[in-house]
Amino acid sequence: MLTHDAAMEWIARWDKQQEGYLPDREERFTALIDAVEALGRPDPVVIDLGCGPGSLSFRLLERLPKATVISVDADPLLLGLGRAAYPGLTFVSADLRTSGWTGLLGLDRPADAAVSTTALHWIAEPDLRRIYGELATVLRPGGVLLNGDHMDTQDVTPALARLEHAVHDRQTERAFGTNPPEDWRAWWDAIAADPAFAELNEERSTAGAAHSGSESHLLSQHVQALRDAGFTEVGTLWQRGNNRLLCGVRG
């Protein structure tokens, strides 16, 4: 049985390894939540796409306690961690690449915002287009998508792209020097070795939830997919190097 305390310890370890790739991760979280708050509703409906164990969802609810946050992921193990750690959140098991995933959300009104951090780059561009298209059907007019991720520009501005990577790399070096935190692979190897997760690891293996690579890492891929889905304004709200917070406003 996964206890609350054990889940919290593993999520703290998850957050630390994520910071190894994103030393300003908390700053990006803050900017994203600022944008949700600026929509003007004390009780927004927010969908967290690829929520993992709920790190962003939890921070959203801390800032906006009247919000309805629906946290969506396809990974049984990460969902199990989130459910044990954050009983106040609503977690939904759904593969965003499967048409009809919005029908599992239990929405009783259009959502005000959809958010995501370091998740959608795993998804191939054709699937990404379908996801944004379906998302637009459940967002209210003026609702937003806020996607924080590494998004590159080398297909459009290669010299700037090189400088963006350099800015990010220097920030990482300043934060960690020669002693970076545990990496992604090591975290997963450690949790796979913990007997408390045997059942969830087996479920994860059966579900085929593991992923690798970066299928849609270009900024242009996300911008065009959002415009094609009916988001009339698309732009960057926050950025450091190639780490940015992209916002799309539904028309």
From TrEMBL:
<keyword id="KW-0489">Methyltransferase</keyword>
<dbReference type="InterPro" id="IPR029063">
    <property type="entry name" value="SAM-dependent_MTases_sf"/>
</dbReference>
<keyword id="KW-0808">Transferase</keyword>
<dbReference type="GO" id="GO:0008168">
    <property type="term" value="F:methyltransferase activity"/>
</dbReference>
<dbReference type="InterPro" id="IPR041698">
    <property type="entry name" value="Methyltransf_25"/>
</dbReference>
<dbReference type="Pfam" id="PF13649">
    <property type="entry name" value="Methyltransf_25"/>
</dbReference>
<dbReference type="GO" id="GO:0032259">
    <property type="term" value="P:methylation"/>
</dbReference>
<protein>
    <submittedName>
        <fullName>Methyltransferase domain-containing protein</fullName>
    </submittedName>
</protein>
<feature type="domain" description="Methyltransferase">
    <location>
        <begin position="46"/>
        <end position="143"/>
    </location>
</feature>
